[in-house]
């Protein structure tokens, strides 16, 4: 459903862009290539995962080079958030929310790393590097064995420890209804 909404939104933006550019004389219509650069989200079922693969061993090297300075040599945190540990703490008074204790989907780990990491150079890692560091982090959290290799087929199959700790929200993104007439503060 999310992918369908995204597709509809992209179609509407592409259709409206030429009129907006002509009306205001600014910019240009976004091309399919322009839009593809922004369309990098990955859903829990794995839709949006790119081709590529990465192993736990490769991930250890990528992590050491790009992640350890902020997240610690083994994902323990300091100065940035801890990525490893915290199992069994969510029910206590001092929960530790890490990839292994809190996150419900392994695909979300890939998505976040791919979009936002490393902090000083987001989106600079290749898909292979993102798969690899995701594999290493899942291994460090006791979720994957040391010989694991992740790709677009295997990553969505990873079952996270807190998968059932979330309640799905089936509400639409917004409950607002567009004002059609007699709107306060609008003509």
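-> sequence recovered:
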């Amino acid at each position: 459903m999310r992918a369908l909404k995204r597709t509809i939104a992209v179609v509407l933006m592409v259709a409206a862009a030429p009129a907006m550019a002509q009306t205001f004389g600014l910019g240009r219509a976004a091309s399919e290539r322009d839009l593809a650069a922004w369309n990098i989200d990955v859903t829990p079922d794995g839709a949006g995962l790119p081709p590529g693969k990465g192993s736990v061993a490769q991930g250890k090297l990528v992590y050491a080079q790009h992640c350890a300075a902020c997240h610690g040599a083994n994902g323990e945190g300091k100065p940035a958030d801890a990525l490893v540990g915290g199992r069994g703490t969510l029910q206590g008074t001092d929960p530790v929310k890490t990839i292994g204790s809190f996150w419900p989907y392994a695909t979300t780990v890939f998505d976040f790393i791919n979009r936002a990491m490393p902090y000083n150079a987001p989106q600079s890692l290749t898909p292979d590097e993102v798969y690899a560091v995701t594999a290493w982090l899942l291994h460090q959290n006791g979720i994957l064995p040391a010989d694991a290799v992740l790709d677009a087929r295997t990553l969505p199959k990873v079952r996270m420890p807190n998968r059932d700790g979330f309640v799905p929200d089936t509400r639409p993104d917004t409950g607002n209804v567009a004002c059609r007439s007699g709107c306060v503060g609008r003509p």
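The two ends are 35 Å apart (CA to CA).
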